[in-house]
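User: Before I run my own analysis I want an independent prediction to cross-check against. Here's the chain; please return only the structure tokens and, at the end, one sentence I can use as a sanity check.
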Amino acid sequence: MRQWFKEFFDKYYYETYVETEPEDRNIRESKFIISALNLPKGSSILDLGCGYARHAVYLAKWGYSVVGFDLSDYLLKRAKERCKKFNVEIDFIRGDMRKMFFEERFDGIYMFYTTFGYFSDEENMIVLENIFNALKRKGKILIDVWNKIRVYSIYLHRNNVMKNWYNAGGYMILEEGFLNYMDDRVVVKRIFYRNSKKIVEKTFSLKIYSVYELSKMLRKVGLRILKIYGDYRGNKYSIESPRIIIVGEKCEKIF
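Assistant: Structure tokens:
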């Protein structure tokens, strides 16, 4: 489970999600990212965990200088194809966010759709340190994750187990989720079927954080919180919100 992210984001992930992410949704979310970061056109922006660049192409189209960073070869190939389709230029870099070594290069960085929390607490802190180093002075960060309180509420009402069947990407998928209370991690297994035949099994493990925990972590590396949203419509965060979307700014480290 420790290295699940090296194999999870493949053709099965892409085929599952791409049909649930139509362009009208991608446009709305991209507009939200730009509004939340509040950076002028021409700013340099890093899409950290860019996937197949479903948002990055719009930011590039709207006049921003965009770099996409991801570990998945497969999704980066799809991202490059998407750039050709949109006739935009994006610099894509394959790499591990724990080993990212930019120095004051970006005006803004965003991690969208639960891209933060893949690793241990210590490694997640390294990611935040790398983000701090990559940002210019007063640079902005947007981190979008599940709302921990809401996740706990959902699992508590289901005896700590989530099981669901659904169709996506031409597959029938059985999804089984489990919440590890001792480690604040959600573990989800997906089994893909086609024509009643099992095709493949994929599992991911995600550390979930509260607003307080995230705020403490960001402050520790030198990121000052500017605003916290609860959804992609820009509503204020509450304990019932589906998301925790933190917008911060680079300041000084607190020792």
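Sanity check: The mean pLDDT is 96.
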